[in-house]
């Protein structure tokens, strides 16, 4: 199975968003994917009030003309305010890549708010009805999920969504949408997770996770 290489990653941080741009791909490919994510796949999370954006170019040394090209693409979304466009030394970039791939965030996602993350996300707090949480990886919510959650947004059907209290308005994994909660056949909604099995979304108790993720042999 071939894995699509993503040239642009968008990561939520405390004061806005960080755009991580691949430093090894062709410049035009980078701009095209940036444009595509702004207009199509990530449109939902890039709308609303003013969002501060920091652009990281990795080890790529961009000219002022190239930086201006990035600015002009991002400026098309009127609510995105560019704070910085920076290149990093190879050492700094290596340190960035060794950071744990799971992001931990806390708070409360209220109605009308959307939180997006690249990679696995551990969220300490509630997602209220009308709120949305999305991630390219797995989503673990230590709280009530009563809004919408979408894991594996780039097409990863192996992603899961787990919550301490699972009563969402809708669940999505990759392109697969869950049945309504009242059709799950589970009376209580505590410590559950959603996963994809044979092209359909299933819901089970969290202690059954080992059935789809076997533990490594312990010696």
Secondary structure blueprint with pairings:
Blueprint (H helix, E strand, L loop, with lengths): L7 E6 L2 E6 L5 H15 L9 E6 L7 H12 L4 E7 L3 H8 L4 E8 L4 E4 L2 E8 L4 E4 L3 E7 L2 E4 L9 E6 L3 E4 L2 E2 L12 E8 L2 E6 L14
Parallel strand pairs: 2-3, 3-4, 5-7, 6-8, 7-9, 8-10, 9-11, 10-12
Antiparallel strand pairs: 1-2, 11-14, 12-13, 14-15
Essential attributes:
MinC_C_sf, alpha/beta, Septum_form_inhib_MinC_C, 3 helices, MinC_N_1, cell cycle, 15 strands, Probable septum site-determining protein MinC, 219 residues
Overview in brief:
With 219 residues, this protein is of the alpha/beta class. Helix content is 16%, strand content 39%.
Tally of individual helices = 3
Tell me, rounded to a whole number, the average pLDDT: 83
Q: In percent terms, what proportion of residues is strand?
A: 35-45%
Order of helices and strands: EEHEHEHEEEEEEEEEEE
In angstroms, what separates the terminal alpha carbons? Answer: 31 Å
How many E-type strands?
Answer: 15
Radius of gyration: 19 Å
Q: How would you describe the shape?
A: elongated
Explain what the structure shows.
A 6-stranded mixed β-sheet has the order 5-7-9-11-14-15, with no helix packed on it. It has a 5-stranded mixed β-sheet with strand order 6-8-10-12-13, with no helix packed on it. With 219 residues, the protein is an alpha/beta fold. The radius of gyration is 19 Å and the shape is elongated. Helices cover 16% and strands 39% of the residues. A hairpin with a 2-residue loop joins strand 12 (170-173) and strand 13.
């Amino acid at each position: 199975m071939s894995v699509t290489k993503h040239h642009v990653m968008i990561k939520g941080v405390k004061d806005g968003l960080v755009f991580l741009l691949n430093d090894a791909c062709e410049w035009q490919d980078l701009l095209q994917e940036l444009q595509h994510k702004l207009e199509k796949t990530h449109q939902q999370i890039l709308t609303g009030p003013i969002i501060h954006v920091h652009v990281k170019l990795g080890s790529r040394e961009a000219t002022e003309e190239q930086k201006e090209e990035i600015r002009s693409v991002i400026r098309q979304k009127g609510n995105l305010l560019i704070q910085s466009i920076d290149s990093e030394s190879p050492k700094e970039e290596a340190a960035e890549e060794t950071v744990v791939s799971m992001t931990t965030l806390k708070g409360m996602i209220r109605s009308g708010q959307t939180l997006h993350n690249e990679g696995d996300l551990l969220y300490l707090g509630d997602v209220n009805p009308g709120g949305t949480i999305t991630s390219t990886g797995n989503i673990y919510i230590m709280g009530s999920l009563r809004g919408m959650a979408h894991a594996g947004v780039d097409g990863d059907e192996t992603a899961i969504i787990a919550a301490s209290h699972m009563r969402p308005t809708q669940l999505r994994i990759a392109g697969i949408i869950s049945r309504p909660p009242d059709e799950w056949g589970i009376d209580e909604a505590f410590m559950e997770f959603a996963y994809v099995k044979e092209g359909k979304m299933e819901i089970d108790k969290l202690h059954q996770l080992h059935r789809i993720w076997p533990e490594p042999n312990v010696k």
